[in-house]
Every structure is written in structure tokens, then in C-alpha cells.
């Protein structure tokens, strides 16, 4: 692998990270990563009707109620953020 290949790969990665929030970056902490994963999962559940219907059937709820519950869980999927330590 040449130096130009590494630079090209790094620039492509930086472009993806700037374009899509969920791809992460070097300063991403564990909480932010978990929030991105949970929100992506809930968005997928809401966006795919068959899996939404499956969850509704499994929890004995209506599909609309299940969609509403998933949308509410997207607000704080992992609870409140942890306290940050200022250096």
C-alpha cells in the first residue's frame, strides 16, 4: 500500500463521516455510538412495515401504537447523556 492510497482512503472516510452522522468519527464516545445504533434500529423498524407488524403482534399492540412507541424511544434511546469531565 502506497502513501497516496492511504491518503485517498482517509479522505474518503472523512467525506463519509461528514456526510452521514451515524458513521462516527475519531472523537465519538461510547454513549454517542450507542445512541446512533439505537436510533438507526428504531428508524428501520418504523420504515419496514412487516417488521413493525411483527413487533405489534408480538407485543399485542396496534401498529400505530407500536410506531408511536418507537418514535418516542428515538428521543433518548439510551437514557440521558453522561456527565462530561472537563479537562
TrEMBL record:
The lineage of its organism: Eukaryota, Viridiplantae, Streptophyta, Embryophyta, Tracheophyta. This is Splicing factor subunit. GO terms for biological process: mRNA splicing, via spliceosome. InterPro entries: SF3b5/RDS3-10 (IPR009846), Splicing_factor_3B_subunit_5 (IPR017089). One of its GO terms (cellular component) is precatalytic spliceosome. It comes from Prunus yedoensis var. nudiflora. Belongs to the SF3B5 family.
Amino acid at each position: 500500500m502506497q502513501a497516496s492510497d492511504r491518503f485517498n482512503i482517509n479522505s474518503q472516510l472523512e467525506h463519509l463521516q461528514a456526510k452521514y452522522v451515524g458513521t462516527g468519527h475519531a472523537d465519538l464516545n461510547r454513549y454517542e455510538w450507542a445512541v446512533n445504533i439505537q436510533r438507526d434500529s428504531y428508524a428501520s423498524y418504523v420504515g419496514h412495515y412487516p417488521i413493525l407488524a411483527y413487533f405489534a403482534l408480538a407485543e399485542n399492540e396496534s401498529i400505530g401504537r407500536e410506531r408511536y412507541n418507537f418514535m418516542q424511544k428515538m428521543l433518548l434511546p439510551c437514557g440521558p447523556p453522561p456527565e462530561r469531565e472537563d479537562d
